[in-house]
């Protein structure tokens, strides 16, 4: 019996024929990286391959690394195995990794979403025999509203807070969610202030995608400057001394987990907006069907429930353990700006 084209081991997802790993969680010689979130792009590999728009992102996070960038749909061979990167729609620079060898095609999604957000290159289904899918939100309870409706709610919330003489503070992951928020906030309402971790990442992304003007929050920012305006911050800023100068403020979180009221209560958030950079239940099912795959491997999320449902639909579906964390592992930022010692590693 021949070994599978991609196998899961203690270091990550391994392609033995090419001697290369996909999004490994332990240091390896050569890694193909799907996107810049901390649970998928880790420090310590000797060589990195990723989409060219992800290169500045992972270099910002990991430092000086040996990395090469590829274009969408560009085929490159390693030991006779063909690889190519295809838009995942998750965040800017996020890729699905297609692997082809001896007539067999596998696709590893990393993280992905089928809802176009105006920042990331939209997701494109890729035909394959075996599809490795996340299922972060693999329950029928997760059903996303159209993005335009969510941002109407967010901007109306900001406008009401301004009329009430309060500062709006909205939490979102520093890479991906923050830039999506910035892109669609209504700047006619007021100014956008940003936490240092978010401003640092946004500065990296500005050459890749148009972003509105923002103002970094520093020790010199006066308390009265925030009133009526909005502050975009990572989740770890909530409850920290950093936020106290914004009183009186109202908090909100933008996350797929805001589907559940209990999540908002546990995080002591005033308002929750359901906005995710992952597929909802129907998005997962639709995306899998579009690949034409017969075999599906489910990772990180509601794997058991989702794979069981896929088997009921007739797929050859199973689960695999990984160290990916879905939406819970998307916010690790190590700010480098001197004097910002109060900024913490972003991990929720």
Structure description:
- This is Putative mRNA 3-end processing factor.
- The chain folds into two domains: 7-141 and 277-329, Metallo-beta-lactamase, Chain A, CATH 3.60.15.10; 147-273, 3-Layer(aba) Sandwich (Rossmann fold), CATH 3.40.50.10890.
- It is α/β, with parallel strands linked by helices.
- The protein has helices at 55-62, 147-163, 177-184, 196-205, 261-266, 281-291, 303-312; strands at residues 7-8, 13-15, 20-22, 30-32, 47-51, 67-70, 76-78, 81-87, 95-101, 104-108, 130-135, 167-171, 192-194, 215-216, 230-233, 249-254, 271-273, 295-301, 316-319.
Q: Categorize the overall geometry.
A: globular
Strand order of the largest sheet: 7-8-9-10-11-18-19
Classify the helix fraction into a percent range: 10-25%
Rg, please?
A: 20 Å
- The overall pLDDT average reads 93
Might you state the CATH topology name of the largest domain? Metallo-beta-lactamase, Chain A
Straight-line distance between termini = 42 Å
Total domain count: 2
CATH class of the largest domain: Alpha Beta
**Architecture of the largest domain, CATH level 2?**
4-Layer Sandwich
* Topology order in helix (H) and strand (E) letters: EEEEEHEEEEEEHEHEHEEEHEHEHE
Report the total helices: 7
Contiguous runs where pLDDT drops below 50 for at least 5 residues: 333-348
Structural class: alpha/beta
Q: Summarize the biggest pleated sheet.
A: 7 strands, mixed
Biased composition (Acidic residues): 322-332
Protein name: Putative mRNA 3-end processing factor
GO molecular function: RNA endonuclease activity
Organism: Salegentibacter holothuriorum
